[in-house]
Amino acid sequence: MCTLLVNATMIAMELKSPEEILKMLEGYRKIVLFGDSGCAQMCDVGGILQLEDMEDFLRQNGKEVLGRIFVEGGICDTNNIRQELIKNQEMLERADAFLIQACGVATQTLTELMPEKESFPAANSKFLGSMPERFVHEERCIMCGDCILDLTGGICPIARCAKGILNGPCGGSMDGKCERDPDTDCVWQLIYDRLKALGKLDNLRSIWKVKDWSLARGPREIIKQET
Ligand code: SF4
Ligand code: SF4
Fold first, then answer.
1. Confidence category of residue 8, pLDDT binned at 50, 70, 90
2. Cα–Cα distance measured from residue 216 to residue 163, given in angstroms and rounded to the nearest whole number
3. Which of 128, 106, 129, 132 is nearest to 119 (CA)?
4. What does the pLDDT average to over 41-51?
5. Residues with Cβ < 8 Å from 184, sequence gap 6 or more?
6. Range of 8-17, 84-93, 125-134 with top mean pLDDT
7. Which of 49, 140, 61, 137 is nearest to 101 (CA)?
8. How far apart are CA 185 and CA 67, in angstroms?
9. Per residue in 52-90, pLDDT tens?
10. CA of 189 to the centre of ligand 2 (A)
């Protein structure tokens, strides 16, 4: 038997509109851009090219871009970003604001590390997802705090069922497709097929308990014990 351990996750995000970005930067002239080689680059939001494009766009709209900081790894990793902050200290001190072409966590990380400056989000973080092909992002997880993928053959009904049904299907599924969108697979059909292939259809015999949504409410944190 082959077991795959998947250790990569990606926060799917998209850039806000140019109008929104200009509006949030009203009153700020000297800007520093941040991007990273993690989720931001994977989502074509904060890769090197997107930082260059943003610099051009802002310059054309009367801003002075002092520099671009492209962080190897994620901006959300404070170890990564701290080094960049030290390296670029003089430039950062001259800036009026930072524009973060990455997820909401990255923006909050910079806000916490450099509270004397304002950090603005250039992107909308949408969900935790997989990336089946370039430019396509599909929702896979809403970070519910109580993962049940072990029961469902590794397919999430919480994020992928239009009704979030825990003991599906809902009865509207037709030919394996979701009643809300005939182009989308009914996730409960996928789960059934998967469990059947795994010889685990018995998983569906019991009624699963109502989910404890208190686990999905923020603010949440994870504190790892040192080993
Ligand atoms: S069950 Fe919860 S944690 Fe697991 S993939 Fe689905 S939404 Fe995410
Ligand atoms: S058809 Fe399937 S995926 Fe669509 S809402 Fe019903 S159970 Fe959920």
1. low
2. 17
3. 106
4. 95
5. 162, 177, 178
6. 84-93
7. 49
8. 45
9. 999 999 999 999 999 999 999 888 888 889 999 999 999
10. 9
State pTM to two decimals: 0.81
Separation CA 101–CA 167 (nearest Å) = 39
Protein residue whose Cα sits closest to atom 7 of ligand 2: 169
Pair type for strands 10-15 and 64-71: unpaired
Nearest listed ligand to the Cα of residue 189: 2
Between helix 104-113 and helix 78-87 the angle, nearest 10°, is 50
User: Tens digit of pLDDT for each residue in 162-181?
Assistant: 998 999 899 999 999 999 99
Which CATH number is 18-125's, of 3.10.290.10, 3.40.50.10780, 3.40.50.10490, 3.40.50.2300? 3.40.50.2300
Q: What is the pLDDT of residue 209?
A: 86
Q: Where are the domains of the chain?
A: 18-125, 127-210
Looking at ligand 1, which residue's alpha carbon is closest to its atom 3?
147
Nearest CA to ligand 1 atom 4: 147
Neighbour-count burial of 106, counting CB atoms closer than 10 A to its CB (0-12 exposed, 13-18 middle, 19+ buried):
buried
